[in-house]
Amino acid sequence: MKVFINGKIYLERGSFAEAMIVEGNRIIKVGTNTDCLQVLKEAAQESVTDLKGKTVLPGLNDSHLHFLMTAEYLSLLPITDVTAMEELINRCRNYIKKNNLTSDDVLYTEGWNHTTFTDGKRMPDRSDLDQASMDVPIVLVRVDRHVMSLNTAALHYFNITGETLLSTGGEIKKDADGQPTGILTEGAVDLVKAKLPKKSREEKKALLVDSMALANKMGLTSMHTNDAKDEDIDETLSLYKELEDEKRLSVRFYQQIWFNNGRYLVNFFNSDHSFHQGSAWNKIGPIKFFIDGTLGSRTAALRKPYADEPTTWGMLTKSPETLTKEVKQAVANGYQVIIHGIGDLGIETILDAYDEALDGQPNTLRLGINHMQITGPDLIDRVADKEYLTYVQPIFLDDDIPIIRERVGNERADTSYLFKTMQEKGIHQSFSSDAPIVSFNPFYNIQCAVTRNRLDSTESNPYLPEEAMDISAAIDAYTYESAYASFDETEKGRIREGYLADFIVLDKDIFTCAHSEIKTTKVLATFVDGKCVYEAGEWNGE
């Protein structure tokens, strides 16, 4: 039995306690110092931690990210901070030289964002990357993971030509002569991903363990991870299962099962897997589909053309009929569904598919939309009416603020990223990072939600400031709402008697500190299942 006293323990909006008791992996009492110490005295035990006024939150829960991809990404050449094409080329050239790469190797990394380039806001193509090397295959993925750039050596290595055909949505960009430019979008990136050199199982497991330690350091105790995909579903799920069996998990996982190619659906539904199969540490979650791309790459599907590129409306990655058929299959097999939808046409297509699949029945499977960015009042009302879930990423404002109005114009921009409106309409809205697209540091996400500004902005011109969420709503979106999205709202997401003992201790009072300082919040200690899985050097607990 462990008693924690003298804390500011967040229970729910406007409600705090000063003490709590943990026994085993559960919180058994929440209340005053006096009440909790009395229980300890009666139990004749002496395990007391003085929180010294520190703020305590439920463990944070990222409701959509790619954790295995993030673990692998953290070992790659860093390029997310690159702000010029020339810098990108030089960084690749230097990496190749430093690591003595040859034509038998592949330089693969992720994170470029051409909208931040100061020497021309265009996507790198083969002519750019050929300047880094004509011999070593180079594959660079855009920050949103929906666009890939290859040099000529990589096009040859992966056998991509002007005649290459695609089985899934996407595009191989071509020049006037019909030859690949080196830019692949959406489903076309699978031509490369399927043939990339694979890490061994033990290497992947080691990366996952290291990344869990980093996640715990940032206050994350649960995640909805989107790694298991198409033909690799069983292989990926088995990594997490082995780590669970080896008692090496320090994060709870809800597995979002990703289908880019619908031909893998039938085999999955005929397998031994079932919805919610597993344990409190690791279980099967929803089926995950895509319907469109991203705003930055102009592949998000819009109902009207892009303001800065009137010749394109973005793209649907599959037909509405195909999406509806696949959603119906998932629902018929008893699975929750989450679908990537950024553009208003993409979101509308998702809602049409959900409505048809449910056929007037309540949304008991908690079907949801991931991203929900470019919206209109009609779409938000439809989500609220049918109680569809939303998974949003306020941190995306950090990259998108400079381009939102440019991409979609003022009218659509004024009805987009409406996190507070969705909250006020009673829509279940959980926070997520979509890492490795951005860092999974939850305090970055929370700051963007309450400031409606870029992380490093020194200007007082937030984007739609009336849509700023208050700190309690932002924390609830990272705790209770993420638990709700996995049907766990009676098990975790709150500090409450009977709930799992997943909680974190902060170095500052996140409820009263300046909003611009939220991003600097440090976690002093992280507890999962009643055990301390991370403690900072300055933590004064046991």
Automatic annotation (TrEMBL):
GO molecular function: hydrolase activity, acting on carbon-nitrogen (but not peptide) bonds
Matching CDD domains: YtcJ_like (cd01300)
Annotated ranges, domain Amidohydrolase: 48-534
Family matches, as Gene3D superfamilies: 3.10.310.70, Metal-dependent hydrolases, Urease, subunit C, domain 1
PANTHER family registered for this protein in UniProt: IMIDAZOLONEPROPIONASE (PTHR22642), PROTEIN LONG AFTER FAR-RED 3 (PTHR22642:SF2)
Name used for this protein in its record: Amidohydrolase 3 domain-containing protein
Organism of origin: Alkalibacterium subtropicum
